[in-house]
């Protein structure tokens, strides 16, 4: 059985209006640029996007922002795309800001089947407003719920046709966690090999988490985003 999609439309057929999406990446590093490009061409709207940031102006998730396909964004570092402030001031997007570690842990909790957890991060700040507080061992903690999504779009280096994934260096940022915390997971990869060709000890995301694979057509280089076949 193969999970490999030959075209982007088939790979993204699981994404519907109003869905919550997790999108991997740290800036544009490790972002599934081919899948994002496919979403830019897909007739879909009202999306909630969970990602560290919303790309840059005209790049990555910044394209979907410009198209007004994103209703709400949950992330940590929105200032990498200056257009977000303009959209927010006009009331065209809802933002939920989470500390970066909190974002990562909330995704991990969602993948582990944990309902939420208590953390000191954010206590006494505006980020704690409206959240449950609890004293543990003399310290104040706030409750953060786990995060899950309908679909996760992630970026890996290699995959076999079963869906086992290997990541390349810093592209292993939010991608492995997001692969565990969505109902459907689509992975964009540089290389697809046959089962047995990936050393088992190098596999980070087991195939049971992955529903679809597509070959990357866009790659981030020092010169910028390039398209390749």
Automatic annotation (TrEMBL):
Q: Does the keyword Glycoprotein apply?
A: no
Q: Name one GO molecular function term.
A: CoA-transferase activity
Q: Which Gene3D superfamilies has this protein been placed in?
A: Glutaconate Coenzyme A-transferase
Instruction: Identify the InterPro entries for this entry.
Output: 3-oxoacid_CoA-transf_A, CoA_trans_fam_I, CoA_transf_BS, NagB/RpiA_transferase-like
Q: Does the keyword Ligase apply?
A: no
Keywords, comma-separated and alphabetical: Transferase
Q: What is the protein name for this chain?
A: Succinyl-CoA:3-ketoacid-coenzyme A transferase subunit A
| Organism expressing this protein natively | Peribacillus simplex
């Amino acid at each position: 059985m193969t999970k490999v999609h030959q075209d982007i439309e088939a790979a993204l057929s699981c994404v519907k209006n109003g869905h919550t999406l997790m999108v991997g990446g740290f800036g544009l590093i490790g972002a599934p640029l081919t899948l994002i490009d496919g979403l830019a061409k897909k007739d879909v709207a009202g999306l909630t996007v969970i990602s560290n940031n919303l790309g840059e102006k005209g790049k990555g998730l910044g394209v979907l922002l410009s198209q007004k396909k994103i209703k709400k964004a949950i992330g940590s570092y929105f200032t990498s795309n200056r257009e977000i402030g303009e959209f927010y001031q006009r009331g065209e997007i809802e933002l939920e800001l989470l500390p970066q570690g909190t974002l990562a842990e909330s995704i991990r909790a969602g993948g582990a089947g944990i309902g939420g957890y208590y953390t000191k991060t954010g206590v006494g700040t505006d980020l704690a407003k409206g959240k449950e507080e609890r004293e543990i061992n003399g310290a104040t903690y706030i409750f953060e719920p786990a995060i899950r999504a309908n679909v996760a779009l992630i970026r890996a280096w290699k995959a076999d046709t079963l869906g086992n994934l290997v990541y390349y260096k810093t592209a292993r940022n939010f991608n492995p966690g997001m692969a565990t915390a969505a109902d459907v997971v689509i992975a964009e990869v540089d290389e697809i090999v046959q089962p047995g060709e990936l050393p088992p000890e190098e596999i980070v995301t087991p195939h049971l988490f992955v529903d679809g694979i597509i070959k990357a057509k866009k790659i981030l280089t020092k010169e910028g985003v390039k398209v390749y076949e």
